[in-house]
Amino acid sequence: MRIGILKAYILKEMNELVRSRLIIMVYLLPTMLLLLFGYGIRMEVTHARIAIIDNDQSHLSNLLTSKFEHSKYFDATTTFMDEGEALRKIKQAQSDAIIIIPAAFEKRLLKGQTTQIGIYVDAAFPSRGSTMESYVQGVILNAASGLIPNATNGSIVINQRTLFNQAMRDEDAIVPGLIGLVLLVAPAIIAALLIVKEKERGTIFNFYASPLTKAEFIAAKLIPVFLLHSLNIFILLLWALYLFEVPFRGSFWLYWVASEFYILVSISIGILISVITKTQIVAVVLTVMVTIIPGFMYSGIIMPISSMVGMSRYEAHVFPVMYYNHILYDVFLVGEGLASEKTQLYLVILALYGVILLGLGALWLRKEIK
Amino acid sequence: MQMMGMLKIDRVSVTHNKRIAIKEATLNVNEGEIIGFIGADGAGKSSLIHAIAGVIRFEGQITFQNSVYHSPSEAEKLKSQIGLMPQGIGLVLYDLLTVGEHLRFFANIRNITQDDRFNEYKSRLLRMAGLDKFVDRRAGNLSGGMMQKLSLICTLLHRPKLLILDEPTTGVDPLSRIELWKILDQIRRDEGTIVLVSTAYMQEAAQMDRVLLFDSGEIIAQGSAKELIESVREMTYVLTPSANLHSMSTLDTTYSLEPLEAEHISPTLEALFFVNALQKNRLLPPVEITPRDGDSSFASVVMEAIGLTKVFGDFIANEHVDIRLNRGEILGLLGANGAGKTTFIKMLLGLLSIDGGELSLLGKRIETAKDRQALKSSIGYVSQHFALYNDMTVRENLLYFALMHQIPMDTAIKRIARYAAELGFEEYMDAIPTELPLGINQRFSLAAALLHEPVILFLDEPTSGVDAIARAQFWQLLVALKEKWKIAILITTHYMSEAEFCDRIVLMREGQKVADDTIANLYTAHPNAQTFEEIFLEYYR
């Protein structure tokens, strides 16, 4: 590896990246993805329109109703209508849920008898529906324990679910996962373009016909993207900390080193694709396919890896995104750092990914016309 | 030590996409020798060039500088001694880098120590190429001729002992071509470099020490240009119409294996192609064109442009150019790369707006965008790069073009069948364009441009890179079209020998028209000129 040659090649690549305006994409794409997905994905439900039909009109039923009215999760209206009319409102999408308080609500409760509250939830979007359902149940349970401290268990029959515990903010869960997705997709796309562009244009002959070695050529393609994207590691961190206000409980150094390893993996994927494809368009489509889909599936945004079973569990372990995301969640939310053996192992696995993918790229790169 | 600089090529074969591209080529070249490769498109020249440059797998053995190699990886150790310039204008250049940056980059990737001696050599190359004033210009903004000169000097920077050039001058104007050869000659003499160069220009090949003729993957003849020309002298005659079945004719020459009762004329290297085709019994059907379906009695002045001007920013691409296209006339539009020919044609085509002057078609002035739309339906256009769809067969391409011009299906099918027969690509109707030789693609591009029976035909360098026989055939077609259809033909070309087949020549230089006359009148005006190339060059001195 001759440093002078590398410098010349890197200077040329940088020049081209700047003059072709591709540099804008290098910095716009990651930030754009983070902002779009960060604001776009919402698991929690706020301002659900809820209609309460209070058939009891008692002190306790009023207290329960006011709990709903004072919650940021609900826009509650208390009405008098029959069930049929209320259901029609749900059908017309004017209401998201209905709560029906029975006539003898207070009386039965005070007597320690079991009482039933009717809840209808619009579950056209199942996850939104089940979230609302558990919110409602949470509010009622919370109210019940406050209203009648001496009430025995089972006074109000509701199966409690913990989803309502929203100390866990959405951003905290989603943004670290997104960083894992963005740093997988963006460097890979740029890297994928670099070699295949020369093939498409014909300038690849400069490599074929010169004494340039394969290692030098790959290094010359890898280093510019690596340096440029290293800056994105910090840009994305700033967005996460100051825009999305995600806590950062772990080691900054661990975040940095793991991210550099991860970028290397991403670039290696791009280079590998660049080596096997012939046109830029195919290279881009292929890169998007092999990075975005697994990046999304196994980033922990949609579901945690630990809850995956069977095939998907194996698949998750094949893609590098899982290992990086484990470290990300650790540095943002947990803070165990290198004390965790799993983190140490995952760091090594990421490095191995980089080495193996680059090795394959170098192996498959041909210094001759196919 | 005499063996030191020798290049020995021993039974080299290249198989490309399961097809034998070159079979058992053998060649010995001495230090300082310059060898020309000629032959039709697809004859195996490029494959042999790639094998010698060590960029494609091959069988056989190549020895250079006493080192033997059998594969690209074995050739690696010699690559610092070899310079390759592959085929394609500006192929190895980076559009976004400047001339100066290219030189630095090429020097750096070859690890050249950039001392005073190197800088002196670099400036000398820049001066020879006439690029010293354009060091800060980006390669993407250079003309084709300048791109090729830049590619050449980039290839020369590391002072290769073996220089391999694949059609460096195709698509380059005569002026740039001469400059390119000057650089090459100088370097060869100074450095003792072996030069292997393929070319489509026979005048260039004639200047070389030795010429190799390629045909269907084999080297079928080699020798000095003089020896080769002597070998076919007996078969070359003045144009003798319908001589016999075993003859072939161009617009001014007839080649026959059997003796003819006609006068001999002095052959050029092009004769080799025809004689070889005759010997292999690859005869061409005579050109026959039937009159068109539509009317041929349109006005005698088909198109007239007066004072056409086009300005890009503060650069005047065309300045007050007058041109007239007459019915039944072939007009040759000549000029160096960057003289403004393409801009001019684009204005005539309605692809560029007109900044000054006026344009009329069949006596009607073209003013509005709607007029320009109408203009397009009266013009047939064959672009430099044949705008064909490479995912469709020839037949599908033609049907698609016919439908674009709203020709009824039954008329279109009949017309396509007729053109296929008359232009001679009938047997390739179900092939994909990329599988076909350039010469066939050129003919079927012509058919596509003629489907809507235009009154004007524009041809932008249709013959660049096409071999001699295909070119001769193409010109016969054009002449027949002109006579039968009375169509006006405007053609640009860099082959000065082709200019002689035009009825009238318009010469452009730096955006202005500098000559507009018939060939005969031009020869009269320039009594010292032996060939048309010399007349051309006089306008540039």
Explain the overall architecture:
- The complex is a heterodimer of chains A (370) and B (541).
- Chain A is mostly helical and 370 residues long.
- Chain A has two domains: 3-41 and 169-364, no CATH class; 48-164, abc type-2 transporter like domain (abc type-2 transporter like fold), CATH 3.40.1710.
- Chain A is 65% helix and 6% strand.
- Chain A has 14 helices and four strands.
- Chain A has helices spanning 3-19, 22-40, 59-69, 83-91, 105-110, 126-147, 170-201, 205-208, 214-243, 252-276, 280-297, 311-318, 321-334, 341-364; strands spanning 48-54, 74-79, 97-101, 118-121.
- A four-stranded mixed β-sheet of chain A has the order 2-1-3-4, sandwiched between helices.
- In chain A, helix 7 (170-201) runs parallel beside helix 10 (252-276) and helix 9 packs across helix 10.
- The longest helix of chain A has 32 residues, at 170-201.
- The radius of gyration of chain A is 28 Å and the shape is elongated.
- Chain B is 34% helix and 25% strand.
- Chain B has three domains: 7-223, P-loop containing nucleotide triphosphate hydrolases (Rossmann fold); 233-279, no CATH class; 301-378 and 454-538, P-loop containing nucleotide triphosphate hydrolases (Rossmann fold, 3-Layer(aba) Sandwich), CATH 3.40.50.
- In chain B, helix 15 links the parallel strand 20 and strand 21 (488-492).
- Chain B has 18 helices and 23 strands.
- At the A-B interface, helix 1 and helix 8 of A face strand 6 and helix 3 of B.
What is the alpha-carbon Rg of chain B in Å? 24 Å
Q: In DSSP terms, counting alpha (H) and pi (I) runs of 4 or more, how many helices of chain A?
A: 14
The CATH class name of the largest domain in chain B reads: Alpha Beta
Report the sheet with the most strands of chain A, covering strand number, pairing sense and barrel closure: 4 strands, mixed
**Which percent bin holds the helix content of chain B?**
25-40%
Number of domains of chain A: 2
Q: Strand order of the main beta sheet of chain B, please?
A: 6-7-8-3-9-10
Quaternary organisation of the protein chains:
heterodimer
Number of helices of chain B: 18
Please state the second-level CATH architecture of the largest domain in chain B. Answer: 3-Layer(aba) Sandwich
Average of pLDDT of chain B: 88
